[in-house]
Design brief:
single chain; mainly alpha; elongated
Length: 67
């Protein structure tokens, strides 16, 4: 049984989209900063954000920044 051309094209496009989505999902890891940069980032957050949002960013004078 031969599929109509439109159905075949749609099936190919759906397959390509699925393969593309699966391939990109496997590469989606957050980048990890080097240890020195991580310490700098923690210091910046505590100094600039912690005074209002709390040192754990769970709220203080300002709203929580974590979920």
């Amino acid at each position: 049984m031969k599929l109509p051309p439109l159905v075949a094209h749609v099936a190919v496009l759906i397959g390509a989209a699925l393969v593309s989505a699966l391939a990109s999902a496997s590469d989606a890891r957050p980048a990890q900063p080097d240890p020195q940069r991580a310490r700098e980032l923690i210091h910046i957050v505590r100094q600039d954000c912690g005074s209002c949002h709390g040192l754990t960013l769970k709220g203080g004078l300002g709203p929580a920044l974590t979920t």
